[in-house]
Amino acid sequence: MSEIAKRIDAIIKEGLAPLLKNEGFKKKARYFDREHENRIELINIQASKWNEGNEGQFTVNVGVYYPEIAKVTDALPVNGLPKEYDCTIRERIGHLSQDNKDTWWKINSSSNDAEVSENVANHVKDLCLPWLDVMSSLDDVKDYIAKNNRAFVAAGIALFQGNRDEASAYIEQTLKQQPLAISKINSWSKKHGLTQA
After folding, report:
1. Distance between CA atoms of 115 and 173, rounded to whole angstroms?
2. SS3 137
3. Taking a C-beta distance cutoff of 8 angstroms, is the pair 2, 53 a contact?
């Protein structure tokens, strides 16, 4: 393991791990998960692929995986714990902040790892945990993703909720957002008996 990888792991262990353990998350490598009856919440640390020696950077990803929505939308099956990219909804921590900028913590020879550790934990506490609370509602997930150009998943949620007219409206929105996926979208709509424009 590289020096930078060891430092990142130590930073996680010092600040983020105790915070998330206290919030009911389990840790596996750089992934933290918290299971609920209808969803799994994930927080993971993503190191830059350009990290080298004792210098590098990392960010935090957060997501919620709804198994029933994955089934409805014909997502690829997940074996074991879902990864962040499997999530029904996901974000980078920086996009949850007011300035909506991608946030990476830089580590080098002049970094104070204890300060970085505290800063990361505070950001997760202030941004990720409240966001996960909001995303515990499928209605809020549906609204959020529809506004962020992911209307197909919103259609899946609406269908799961029994709102067929709403699902059809989201399919129309999806066709405008993703015209190249028209064949797949129409096939999915037909499979579920949804009306199309």
Report:
1. 45
2. coil
3. yes
Q: What's the mean pLDDT in 167-196?
A: 90
Q: How far apart are CA 105 and CA 60, in angstroms?
A: 9
Q: How far apart are CA 73 and CA 53, in angstroms?
A: 42
Strands (E) located in the chain: 26-28, 31-35, 40-47, 56-65, 89-92, 105-107
What are the φ and ψ backbone dihedral angles of 102, each rounded to 5 degrees?
A: -60, 130
pLDDT at 70 (0 to 100): 96
pLDDT in tens, 4-42: 999 999 999 999 999 999 999 999 999 999 999 999 999
- Residue from 67, 68, 47, 60 nearest 2 by CA: 47
Q: Are 94 and 102 in contact (CB under 8 A)?
A: yes
Looking at the predicted structure, is the pLDDT value of residue 197 above 90? no
Burial class (CB in 10 A: 0-12, 13-18, 19+), 65: buried
Q: Are 37 and 136 in contact (CB under 8 A)?
A: no
Q: What is the largest CA-CA distance in the chain?
A: 60
